[in-house]
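hey
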């Protein structure tokens, strides 16, 4: 809260701290906060307390150690302004996720843990090669080693070189999001991971793929990214509909909302590459609001498993008859995922749709279909899970306890406040978006 109180929306990068690290190689502990990083840092601060409340009765020390290491990794990645430091924290996130899934997961958890690690390492290695080459080019140009983002943005690359370097970063970020074609780890990992790991994966880690493109892609290769934006927009549109169709056909709640998250993350990526004020505002706002709703629904799925020992829709039903508090929170978070009017997700999706229509009519139409398709699979799931025929396993269950309500209530309040009064939040990031977008349009010659 101290950072929020002292943060100046018009101040650019703030709270900068720099300390020597590997000085001879130009590497420093260099961190700072602007509006983009502030949004994700606030998410981390808001989501971790409910996560620890959920883990309150967890007695395995390794569980807690890994969750705290994971929090360190995601926080450090968002704060880093040195590319090598960013890479270090980016890799730090991977180890606790691997252990959480491989040791504490279920089903084919060891296989799924290895799959996410191998795919993520593939992307990380490509990004590392790009980082090292950029650092070498800076040294070759200036005679000084540096991996600070502010220094590296001064370099101009030949078109072919820029394409390869951009691809190195994009592969890492596309896997993390994940864009369609890079998503094969997603549903198995979400299905096998314990609830706290799923919450972090969906609510925070996936958003760091978007953050990486925004911070480093547009920071270093804005011209190349803008030139190839139509290709990524097509991939995002395909992802919107493909993931939604997979969600409709999925019986496992975790995998269903994994595909739902993939669809909405594709929507966020789409908004980013539309490169206009409406779409950018919607994407950044959706990073926050989708994280809140996603965390809430995965908490509810975790509580569902604790009560019914199943997360399969076909093995649930009639919950509303015996657990009204459970029903309210489950339905609220599910509808928030679908963009329920009055919640923050509705505002964010509407902004992206407006941005899509302002670019191209048909892009706007296909973007709007994402909201319709989300309503379809969410209402279809709710009808069978909460209001369908009562299943034998749902006859004698406990409703939400006071601790569980306390864990979930802040997420409900924030989703309602962000939906009813978005003007409380948008002034914190609109000046940053306006300035960054103006610089982008100037750098690409005002073609968009």
């Amino acid at each position: 809260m101290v950072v929020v109180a002292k943060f100046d929306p018009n101040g650019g990068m703030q709270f900068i701290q720099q300390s020597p690290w590997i000085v001879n190689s130009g590497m420093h502990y260099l961190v700072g906060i602007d509006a983009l990083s502030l949004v994700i840092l606030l998410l981390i601060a808001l989501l971790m307390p409910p996560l620890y409340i959920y883990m309150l009765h967890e007695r395995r020390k390794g569980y807690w150690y890994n969750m705290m290491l994971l929090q360190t990794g995601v926080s450090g990645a968002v704060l880093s302004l040195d590319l090598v430091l960013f890479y270090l924290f980016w890799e730090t996130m991977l180890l606790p996720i691997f252990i959480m899934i491989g040791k504490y997961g279920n089903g084919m958890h060891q296989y799924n843990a290895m799959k996410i690690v191998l795919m993520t390492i593939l992307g990380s290695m490509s990004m590392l090669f790009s980082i090292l080459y950029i650092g070498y080019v800076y040294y070759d140009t200036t005679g000084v080693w540096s991996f600070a983002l502010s220094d590296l943005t001064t370099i101009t690359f030949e078109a072919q070189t820029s394409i390869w370097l951009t691809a190195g970063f994009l592969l890492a970020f596309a896997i993390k999001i994940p864009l369609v074609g890079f998503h094969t780890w997603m549903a198995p990992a979400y299905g096998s991971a314990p609830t706290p790991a799923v919450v972090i994966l969906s609510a925070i880690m996936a958003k760091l793929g978007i953050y990486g493109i925004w911070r480093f892609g547009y920071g270093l290769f804005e011209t190349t990214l803008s030139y190839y934006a139509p290709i990524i927009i097509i991939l995002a549109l395909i992802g919107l509909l493909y993931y939604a169709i997979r969600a409709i056909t999925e019986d496992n709640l975790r995998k269903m909302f994994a595909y739902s998250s993939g669809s909405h993350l594709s929507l966020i990526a789409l908004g980013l590459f539309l490169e206009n004020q409406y779409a950018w505002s919607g994407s950044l706002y959706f990073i926050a609001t989708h994280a809140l709703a996603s965390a809430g629904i995965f908490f509810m799925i975790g509580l569902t498993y604790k009560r019914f020992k199943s997360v399969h829709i076909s093995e649930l039903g009639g919950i509303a008859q015996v657990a009204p508090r459970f029903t309210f929170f489950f339905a609220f978070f599910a509808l928030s995922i679908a963009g329920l009017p009055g919640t923050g997700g509705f505002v964010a999706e509407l902004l992206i749709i407006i941005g899509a229509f302002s670019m191209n009519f048909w892009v706007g139409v296909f973007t709007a279909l994402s909201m319709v398709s989300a309503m379809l699979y969410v209402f279809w799931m709710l009808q069978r899970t909460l209001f369908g025929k009562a299943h034998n396993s749902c006859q004698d269950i406990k409703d939400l306890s006071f601790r569980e309500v306390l864990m979930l209530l802040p997420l409900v309040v924030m989703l309602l406040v962000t939906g009813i009064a978005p003007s409380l939040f948008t002034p914190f990031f609109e000046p940053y978006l306006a300035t960054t977008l103006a610089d982008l349009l100037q750098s690409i010659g005002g073609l968009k």
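The chain is about 75% helix and 5% strand. The mean pLDDT is 89.
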